[in-house]
Amino acid sequence: MECKYLVTFLIDTSNVNTLKQEYASLLIGKNATIFRSNQKAIADSISLAYIRKTMNSAGSNMPEINTGLLPSAKYQPEVLNRNGQITLYNAILEDLYSYPLNKNINWRIEKERKKIQGYTCTKVTCEYGNKSIIAWYTDEIPIPEGPYTFKGLPGLVLEAYDSKKYFHFILVGLVNVKKPIALPKVSIPTTYEKFYNKRKQLMDDPLGAFMNTFGRRAPKDNEERIIRNIKSINNFLD
């Protein structure tokens, strides 16, 4: 089964003009599910290929890098649920990390009901990190799955969002189709705490992180743009 969602997300919490939308799919198999952006693989490969090409062709001179490609302004997280074990995949610059979900979601079932795509849905709420989450699930599809890590309910989650609408997932299509669940590419195993600290280091010292990742200093005339672009990607659902 493939559940297609429209994902709306804000890149920079201080700039409403950074609101983005793209489609993501939840593929549900017999023993595994995966939620990922439909555009992520293409966007990532183009961005990283461009960065490598400019650096490799620069010789001893510093390349001029389009910092708009660094890091990718697309919905990045991927979530794999294999036999009940949930693993998140997320990138920091060029490196893809994987870590087990370390949060237990305590859903509260509310009284409100509404229709989504013709299905009667029940409202649920929870606290997720520093965000308040509202979600709607339907027991007409008795599968304890949903977008991102919003799972474990008596039915499929058709809509989920935080109270500020920085992130919003809404089901737009449901197809009974058999598709192979392709696992994410090779990743660096870690814990959420280590991933969080690594990302914080990127935000605190973008140029240092750039050098550690790509093996050379950023072009002097691009430093301010690199810092600005990295720091502007500051809205994380985790």
UniProtKB/TrEMBL annotation:
Pfam families: Porph_ging (PF09697). NCBIfam families: GLPGLI. This is GLPGLI family protein. It comes from Chryseobacterium aquaticum. The lineage of its organism: Bacteria, Pseudomonadati, Bacteroidota, Flavobacteriia, Flavobacteriales.
